[in-house]
Amino acid sequence: MRYSEMLGRLDPSLAAAPESVRKDVVEDWLRINGVFNAATHSVNPKEFEDTVEVFERLLEDRLAPPTLEKEDAISSFVREVESRA
């Protein structure tokens, strides 16, 4: 729960996502956390590379989420304002 709340604060849209999505993100985060913590000792290079790729995707998804919903809301707002003109 702690990680779900933390990730939800980083990405408010995640807090509103379905439970299955939040669960997948938290599981990815925990796996990545474990690998990075173990990396100071020893880690399989292939596992480390795969984990870095998952980490990059996780960051990309959180930092640059799709904007279609926002674009739809903006378009709707513009249509509404233009219809009043």
Strand content: under 5%
> What is the typical, i.e. mean, pLDDT?
79
Indicate the radius of gyration in whole angstroms: 18 Å
Shape: elongated
The computed structural class is mainly alpha
How would you describe what is shown here?
This protein has helices spanning 2-10, 12-15, 19-38, 45-63, 68-84. The protein is mainly α and 85 residues long. It has one domain.
How are the SSEs ordered, and which strands pair?
Layout: H1 2-10, H2 12-15, H3 19-38, H4 45-63, H5 68-84
Key phrases:
mainly alpha, 85 residues
Short recap of the structure:
The chain is mostly helical and 85 residues long.
